[in-house]
Structure formats: C-alpha cells, structure tokens
Input
Amino acid sequence: MNTVAPGRNIDELTVAGFGEEWDSFDQTALSQDEWHELFERYFAIFPWDSLPANAEGFDLGCGSGRWAAGVVDRVGMLNCVDPSAKALAVCQKRLGSKPNARFHQASVDAIPLADGSQDFGYSLGVLHHIPDTAAAMADCARKLKRGAPFLVYLYYAFDNRPLWFRLVWKASDLARQVICRLPFPLRKAVTSVIAATTYWPLARLALLLEKAGMDVEGIPLAPYRSTSFYTMRTDALDRLGTRLEQRFTRAQIAAMMTAAGLENVRFSEGVPYWVAVGTRKA
Output
C-alpha cells in the first residue's frame, strides 16, 4: 500500500467515520444478486466499450471496495484511493489477491498518480463529503487522459422532488447533525434502529404498493424496496452518521464537471440521483 501525506481538502472526522463504517459493514454480507443490482444502478451509463485494452484507472474514495470488486476484472490496472487507512485495509482484504489492484492512502488533492495518466476514473458517493467538492472534481479530472471517462455520484438536492419531500429531508438532516457526533458504537446502534423503524417499513410498504400496480417513486425510501436490511443499515449509517454532507442540483453538478474540464456530460435518469459521466476534454 502506498501512503502519502494527506492534503488540505479533507475533513478528518468524516474520514475517520467512514473508516469505522466500512470496517463494520464491509459489504461481504451482500448476496451476489443484490450486489450486482446495486452495481448496475451506478455503472449503467459508464462507457465500458470506449476503454482501451488493459486500461488503467482509479477509484477515488474506494471505501470497502464494493464497486472496485466489479471493475478490477474488466481493466488492466485499478488504483484504489482512500484517505482512511482502515477503509483501505478493508478494500485491500477484498481485492488483495488481484495482481492488477494497487492501493493508495491519499486525499483527493494528493492522489499519487501522474496528471493525464489514467484511462478512466470514478468516484461514487464521495465528493459530497469533501469540503471543496468542485476542487475535488477538478483534481480527479486532472488525472485523466484526453477523452477518458469519469463517472461520479453526488447526493442530489431534491431538485426533482416536491417541496414536502425536501422538508422531510430537512428534518432528517437535523437528526444527522446530532447523530453524527455520537461515539461510533452508539451512532451505529441508533442508525440501525432507524433502519428498522423507518427504512424497512417504508421500503416494504413501497414494495407492496408496487405489486398492487401503484407508482411508488414518490414514496420516501422507495428505492430500498428491493434491498436487504443489511443495505438499509449500511445506508442509514452512511446518510445519518456522516459529519460533512453537501447536496447539489443536476445543473450544479453539470457546471462543476464542465469547470473541471469534462465534456459530453450525461446523467442517469434513474435512482440514485445524481449519477453522471463525462470525458476529459480533447
């Protein structure tokens, strides 16, 4: 594992929290079918066919390695980058037998890869936990070769939802600001209770209504209707136990990607919102 000094665009408490999260929920408990369904939600718009043979790329904020596990066998070399030593150890345990996986403990503004050297990159659910998301986007894009794709997932600002939906989120965010300051064992316990009393009932209600022929996309937490309780626990901790969270509209994400030197930006039209891909300007 390659270790470098952390940069400045980093929130240390957030990084420490994710290290604890991935150490507790390393994602190995997911069934293969559920993992594949989740993977495809993010990578459905990724241009696999455009990659050169033996492509080299990076996973910025690799965490447990759950997405890297679906990428590493499709490429020549995958650089797994994360500022948390604990998270990176989980990823390395998962991918350690892969000879084409390298591991780098580094923040986004100190990625130990040469500028213009990578055939692809992706960062899923990470950049919104970094103090300066726009700068982080530019740091990622800088590592790409001309024409190379970059896939990103950023929390949405509910710009495609009604006002009442945003108000529900506001209430949950107030809870997050309290929960994220608890010691990790208590944080994990509280969010597991929330998963059991809020995520699971709403998700299963959505599943029942969907089977009855109703449109359930407007029901909060409906995207969890086909996921396991393990995923609900993971995501409840991810969403409510994190110190730093930012949200962006689709237009804001497109603007950040363009400013970072990416073009041909396009978005996935399904959940999770928003997933986008762009290519480094030629």
The chain has two domains: 2-156+247-280, 163-240.
